[in-house]
Automatic annotation (TrEMBL):
Name of the protein: Sulfatase-like hydrolase/transferase
Stored InterPro entries: Alkaline_phosphatase_core_sf, Sulfatase_CS, Sulfatase_N
Single GO term (MF): transferase activity
TM spans (from-to): 29-48
UniProt KW keywords: Glycoprotein, Hydrolase, Membrane, Signal, Transferase, Transmembrane, Transmembrane helix
């Protein structure tokens, strides 16, 4: 039991909720775990200026699905509420840009070779059957006294009747965009034609309002389906973005693919019909994203109304990037190319630098450790990622950070376009080396070839290949050592 508003008002005076967000949270945590007989003592300790108060900020992870970096410009409320008020991590990476593996990496702070999860097919069953869902960031934060919620997409191939451990609030369709939703154990059917992201937006706002008004620390994963195919959007946006130019970057319909592996070389040029289809789909993707954009404004407004905004971390990210015609590849993800493996992560919250960009390498494995750090919960010793809280806070900027990330793609359940499994490495400087199971290799220096137009595997530095060897089978602290590279 935590103190209600009246109790806090008694303690602090009427403006308790306005002035003391950090200490207020500390009291919340302490009282929530204390039995009544100790309440007086605990409160005395907590209000003492010397008290070693444990801070419990709220944490909200907003996720889109299959969003590519070239759609972010359309989200005006993201610009106002997150980009201008937070940090844009431009070099944020997915170890494997695929829905289920990426979401599993986020939940456990591990590379796919350590979750073992590379497939979408039955991904959630795998995660459950191997007991992986008994130790996720939701479980850790739940145990630490957080209220935890997942609203929206979870893992692919999810058994809808099943609510995984650690989640206090569960409103999920499972893996796709089904109109059948498990609402805290109760199966709900929504009518045909229901725009499900709008339903999620409503549930997200309701949850944030409830938790913000009770002033109990919460962790929310708000997982939208937008802008995933088939790009379902609100009818209100039907005519929007009609003239938005479809971006055709230099990699689009790549003219010379003689430098590329066979799965790319075998693709024909982008036809006129395909080009029109991509342009139409691109505009529908922008329309679909507007519901997420609206939701972000609502979340921020609600937090502001309840004086919780300054005590809340908000992260916006997606689960994987997306390509539409780049390197001649039809719509999709999974590849190690920049379109798929990179999407800027946007973070705002207490102490975080505002309106700045940071190009240091961060990874989907970093989110769980970062959330633990923000919540002042001890790290799990076996996670591969590292907390970003010091990097994001101008006052504690670390002198050293990782130099390499591992990129690893395996599709035991098939991928439909002939891409062999691969393992690769990307350096902070922008050198990318990929080795496929077919024996083919790719190397790009993104400083001189940012669009990956001319692979030169013979030019790959030995140090990069060595880094890949060290990373390929790394685990836990060993991954962080390998990512840091040899000490000079
Ligand atoms: Ca996805
Ligand atoms: Ca080329």
């Amino acid at each position: 039991m935590g103190p209600d508003a009246a109790e806090l008002a008694l303690l602090w005076g009427d403006d308790a909720n306005d002035n003391m967000p950090m200490t207020k949270k500390a009291i919340r945590l302490l009282t929530s775990v204390a039995v009544a007989v100790f309440c007086a003592l605990v409160l005395t300790v907590a209000v003492s200026p010397d008290a070693d108060a444990v801070q419990r900020p709220n944490i909200i992870l907003i996720m889109t699905d299959d969003q590519s970096a070239d759609t972010l410009w359309s989200m005006n409320r993201v610009r106002a509420h997150l980009l201008n008020r937070g940090t844009k991590l431009t070099n944020a990476r997915f170890a494997f840009p695929r829905c289920c593996p990426s979401r599993a990496s986020i939940l456990r702070g591990q590379y796919p070779h350590n979750t073992g999860l590379f497939a979408n097919e039955n991904g959630s069953g795998y995660f459950r059957n191997r007991g992986l869902d008994r130790s996720t960031v939701a479980v850790w934060l739940d145990r630490a006294g957080y209220d935890t919620a997942l609203i929206g997409k979870y893992l692919n191939g999810h058994d809808q009747k099943y609510v995984p451990p650690g989640w206090d609030r569960w409103f999920s369709q499972g893996g796709g965009n089904s109109r059948t939703v498990n609402d805290d154990g109760e199966i709900r059917e929504y009518g045909s034609g229901t725009h499900m992201d709008s339903v999620r937006k409503r549930e997200i706002s309701d949850y944030v309002r409830l938790k913000a008004s009770t002033h109990r620390p919460f962790f929310l994963q708000a997982s939208f389906f937008a802008p995933h195919a088939p790009y379902d959007h609100q009818s209100a946006y039907e005519g929007a973005f009609a003239n938005a130019p479809f971006p055709r970057p230099p990699a689009y319909d790549e003219a010379d693919v003689s430098d590329k592996p066979a799965y790319v070389r075998s693709k024909p040029r982008v036809s006129e019909a395909k080009d029109l289809e991509y342009a139409r789909d691109y505009r529908d993707r922008l329309r679909a994203l507007q519901t997420v954009d609206e939701s972000i404004a609502e979340i921020v407004g609600i937090l502001q109304n309840h004086n919780e905004l300054n005590d809340t971390y908000i992260v916006l990210w997606t689960d994987n990037g997306y390509h539409m015609g780049e390197h001649r590849l039809s719509t999709g993800k999974l590849t190690p190319y920049e379109t798929d493996t990179n999407f800027p992560m946007i973070v705002r919250g207490p102490g975080i630098r505002q309106g700045v960009e940071d190009d240091r390498l961060v990874l989907n494995t970093d989110l769980a450790p970062t959330f633990l750090a923000w919540a002042n919960v001890p790290q799990q010793p076996w996670t591969d990622g590292r907390p970003m809280e010091a990097l994001l806070d101008a006052r504690t900027d670390p002198a050293t950070w990782r130099r390499y990330v591992l990129l690893e793609g395996r599709t035991p359940d098939g991928n439909g376009f002939g891409m062999p499994d691969y393992a690769g490495v990307l350096s902070q400087e922008g050198e990318k080396y990929i080795r496929y199971a077919s024996g083919e290799q790719e190397y790009y220096d993104l400083r001189t070839d940012p669009h990956e137009l001319e692979s030169r595997p013979e030019a790959a530095p030995q140090a990069l290949k060595d880094a890949l060897e060290a990373l390929r089978t790394c685990a836990g602290p060993g991954c962080r050592t390998a990512e840091n590279g040899p000490t000079p």
